[in-house]
């Protein structure tokens, strides 16, 4: 899948923030190949240029909220999973 791209984002998040904070960035391999104001523009523009499954779209924000989902239930207070 896109493990390499996600790892790149995690490893370089602090460097990417000053450049792309609040933008949806498109990552291929270990390179940002585009930045967009919204997810739809990032998706449709990337689909015109690249093969499906070869790029990752990631909202560039501080912290882990943009790539973490928290599930709440009555048994366990919080179950966290990276998306």
From TrEMBL:
Tell me which domain of life the UniProt entry assigns to the organism this sequence originates from: Bacteria
Q: Where is the DUF5678 domain?
A: 15-52
The protein's name: DUF5678 domain-containing protein
Query: What does the organism's lineage look like at the top?
Result: Bacteria, Pseudomonadati, Bacteroidota, Bacteroidia, Bacteroidales
Pfam families per record:
DUF5678
